[in-house]
Specification:
17% strand, 8-stranded parallel beta sheet, 3-stranded antiparallel beta sheet, alpha/beta, globular
Length: 401
């Protein structure tokens, strides 16, 4: 018996968008869906009760970071991620492939989160000099030094799958090599070959029948490599797909990659687009066949004072909000908008009060989670194009700064 089942309930005529139901061991996920990122088995500043209240159906945990701290064995001791974190709905874990990119190519070229945090001379400040790589990729896996203490570790497909099985997520990802938009065609092709071999090894290493394993389509922004990867990953019998790696250097590049890839993937299986979470991106990527999304952007920008509204992003630092008695978005039903004014939120932000992080994160996640739900409903109702035009016409017209 497969660990998950996927049912398509509505399709966009003449397009690849669809509304579906994904059944997992920890509950049903209605797609399209946006999942908050809980890197360390927590979404920053929010409780599981907060997440459930704002409508989250599934969250993402990070295999690399949880392996580093507190360790997969400890998480397993507490009953896996569900018991450890008290989030009882579905979990997805990534394989550590993106962290391989950040520790390697990303460190060297200053691209990626970890690269920005750990420049060549050490410390959190940004350096203009290329950073020293913390990992080495070979045909069998990756040897790397911890970004926490410099200790040496090694990931192979079997190790990544073992970690994810101990973490106990409902959906796990094959180990892959994530390439950069700065990678050459030749290197991207070599990395693609490794990713495909590692995909086969990931399948062979999986033993937990209660977890679904998704294969990852790579190939950068190169059409022939993306087509090759989509066909190969589709042939292996994964229970779903993730589309990752470099999605080009523009949103049009990303759209083109989806147009290449999604028609080649089994339409009866879910497709997860990794690391995408801006409101406008949901419409364009769902229309091209993506079902599932994750991204740190909603919570990250909230912590810096940027809040979503139907009239664009609002910069709460702006002095105009000091005397504003209204909510962030008068049409939003989130806890923050029901209870707090822009004036109070600006005060919290300017005073560097931690409460702002929680209230801002609740709002931005509610906004993006419910946007995915509204897009789903528009597909069920047969009014996707009308909803897209109305929402983006308003959202993209202006930003409150």
């Amino acid at each position: 018996m497969p660990a998950i089942s996927f049912e398509i309930q509505a399709r966009l005529p003449g397009g690849l968008a669809r509304a579906g139901r994904l059944n997992t061991p920890h509950g049903v996920i209605e797609t399209p869906v946006f999942m908050p990122v809980g890197t360390n088995a927590t979404v920053k500043s929010l409780t599981p009760e907060d997440l459930e209240s704002l409508g989250a159906q599934i969250i993402l945990g990070n295999a690399y970071h949880l392996y580093m701290r507190p360790g997969a064995e400890l998480v397993a001791e507490f009953g896996g991620l569900h018991g450890f974190s008290n989030w009882r709905k579905p979990f997805l874990t990534d394989s550590g492939g993106f962290q391989v990119f950040s520790l390697g190519f990303g460190m060297e070229h200053g691209v990626g989160k970890i690269a920005k945090m750990f420049p060549a001379e050490g410390g959190p400040q940004r350096s203009t000099a290329p950073a020293q790589k913390l990992c080495k990729v070979d045909e069998d896996g990756v040897t790397f030094r911890s970004h926490l203490d410099g200790s040496r570790h090694r990931f192979t497909p079997a190790v990544s799958i073992d970690i994810q099985q101990k973490l106990g997520a409902d959906i796990i990802l094959a180990f892959d090599e994530c390439t950069s938009p700065l990678s050459s065609y030749e290197y991207t092709k070599q990395a693609l070959g490794r990713t495909h071999r590692w995909a086969e090894q990931s399948l062979a290493a999986k033993t937990n029948e209660h977890q679904a394993l998704f294969g990852i389509v790579q190939g950068g922004a190169y059409e022939d490599l993306r087509l090759e990867s989509a066909r190969f990953i589709d042939s292996l019998g994964f229970e779903g797909y993730a589309i990752g790696g470099s999605l080009g250097q523009s949103k049009r590049d990303m759209h083109q990659i989806l147009e290449w890839v999604c028609p080649l993937l089994d339409e009866n299986k879910p497709r997860h687009l990794l690391g995408i979470g801006e409101p406008e991106d949901l419409f364009e990527c769902i229309e091209r066949g993506a079902d599932m999304f994750d991204c740190v952007a909603p919570t990250r920008v909230a912590r810096h004072g940027a809040l979503f509204s139907r009239d664009g992003k609002l910069n709460i630092k702006n002095a105009r909000f000091r005397h504003d008695h209204g909510p962030i978005d008068a049409e939003c039903g989130c806890y923050t908008c029901r209870n707090y004014t822009r004036g109070y939120l600006r005060h919290l932000f300017m005073a560097d009060e931690l409460l702002f992080y929680r209230l801002g994160s609740i709002h931005n996640l509610y906004f993006i989670v419910h946007l995915a739900k509204d897009i789903r409903q528009s597909l069920l109702d047969g009014r996707f194009h009308e909803f897209k035009a109305a929402f983006l016409g308003r959202f993209m017209a202006k930003a409150l700064v």
